[in-house]
């Protein structure tokens, strides 16, 4: 395969690997902005839709070819990684742009910024590009993987934007906000290009004008990408609506099985959507149908359970609302579900959780198949660090000990430290 190649801006190198890990790295210290890696899959210079944009709020491309793997910190160094499987890239895609955005400052305050292309099979480094000339940029195209005569190559680009992730995305046909609200993308001033002799390939052609802006509409959380920032997608005000819907599927051995089809039925199953909360003043409590503890949106805990649904229908289900206008008074909120009656466990239950901010994209995920005798499941944990709200997919089935309520079980698992008394609804 040969030795690793440290690249200059504008140069390119062949990528003789079936799949690669793309590592963006930088040094961290007090005052350093948070950096996020992203990738855009292009057809003739632009995305086909918002689905061709892979980043922290949309971590897996529909084809499975590009994945955002997330960050690792070791000492004073941070890496944010993407994986690219060339065999799964759709034939129409001819370029994958590797970009970075800075949150909370400019790239002029980020030291040691670089990108490495690593063979995912044997771990060998194929190429590395270091950039040290950033100033006012808040987004950066570090490089691009591109198809040339049937072979993939990597080009070091080093193109900066002072309009952040939104400006970069808009330049390739994506607008995270409404098009009329999006300022025209402005490329940050660039230093003079290196001499022609230092370049082994012509600069990439100019990006075609934006034909149609698209909007990110949904974020799906998975085991590999379990969390999302509400502030980074503008979803930190208004009402956050949490919905749980479910379907119970049973397989019968009678006439339905003889006809070779599964028979879907809705059992008399009663699930309760609940929330444990902790406020910044230290107060803790629970919002649930038991004991008519439905909560309130206009006073603490700023969480309200809409009602008690026994069907699980997609159009209704169990609904709970969090008032994000009072997010500064919320420290953490754990959304969970208990089986009140109708079943001994969540087995055969197919459930979907959706969190819909009043502003920003919907967040959803499915529950895994339950293989333990669980009557309580932690769904999602919403935490605040004073600046940002993070939604973490839990999807964690818990098994209460004999004589211990589901509520006590979830309290113990997450260290809430509350006193519980029997209740009814």
From TrEMBL:
Coiled coil: none annotated. It comes from the Bacteria. Residues 5-172 form the TerD domain. Residues 174-206 are annotated as: Disordered. Signal peptide: none annotated. Residues 181-195 have a biased composition (Pro residues). Belongs to the CAPAB/TerDEXZ family. This is Stress protein. It comes from Streptomyces pratensis (strain ATCC 33331 / IAF-45CD).
């Amino acid at each position: 395969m040969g030795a690793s190649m440290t690249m200059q801006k504008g140069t390119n190198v062949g990528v003789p690997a079936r799949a690669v890990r793309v590592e963006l790295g930088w040094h961290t210290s007090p005052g350093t902005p948070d950096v996020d890696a992203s990738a855009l899959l292009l057809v003739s210079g632009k995305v086909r839709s918002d689905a061709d944009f892979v980043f922290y709020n949309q971590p897996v491309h529909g084809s499975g070819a590009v994945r955002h793997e997330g960050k690792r910190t070791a000492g004073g160094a941070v890496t944010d990684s993407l994986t690219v499987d060339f065999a799964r890239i759709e034939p129409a895609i001819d370029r994958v742009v590797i970009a970075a955005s800075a949150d909370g400052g400019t790239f002029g305050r980020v030291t040691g910024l670089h990108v490495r292309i690593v063979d995912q099979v044997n771990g060998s480094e194929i190429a590395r590009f270091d950039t040290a000339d950033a100033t006012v940029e808040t987004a950066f195209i570090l490089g691009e993987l591109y198809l040339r005569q049937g072979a993939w190559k990597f080009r070091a680009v080093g193109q900066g934007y002072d309009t952040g992730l939104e400006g970069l995305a808009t330049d390739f046909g994506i607008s995270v906000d409404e098009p009329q609200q999006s300022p025209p993308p402005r490329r940050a001033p660039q230093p003079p290009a290196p001499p022609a002799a230092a370049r082994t390939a012509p600069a990439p052609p100019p990006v075609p004008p934006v034909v149609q802006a698209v909007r990110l509409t949904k974020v799906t959380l998975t085991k590999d990408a379990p969390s999302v920032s509400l502030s980074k997608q503008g979803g930190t005000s208004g009402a956050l609506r949490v919905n749980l819907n479910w379907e119970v599927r049973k397989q019968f051995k009678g006439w339905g099985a003889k006809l070779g089809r599964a028979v879907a039925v809705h059992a008399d199953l009663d699930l309760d959507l609940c929330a444990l909360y902790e406020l910044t003043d230290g107060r803790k409590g629970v919002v649930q149908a038991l004991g008519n503890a439905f909560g309130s949106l206009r006073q603490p805990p700023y969480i309200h359970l809409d009602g008690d649904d026994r069907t699980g229908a997609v159009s209704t289900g169990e609904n709970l609302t969090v008032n994000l206008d009072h997010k500064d008074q919320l420290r953490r909120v754990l959304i969970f579900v208990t089986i009140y009656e109708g079943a001994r466990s969540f087995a055969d239950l197919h459930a979907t959780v959706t969190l819909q901010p009043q502003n920003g994209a919907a967040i959803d995920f499915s529950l895994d198949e339950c293989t333990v005798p669980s009557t309580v499941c932690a769904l999602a944990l919403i935490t605040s660090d004073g600046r940002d709200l993070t939604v973490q997919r839990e999807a964690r089935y818990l098994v209460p000990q004999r004589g211990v309520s589901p509520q006590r079980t979830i309290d113990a698992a997450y260290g809430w430290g509350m006193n519980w008394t029997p209740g009814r609804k």
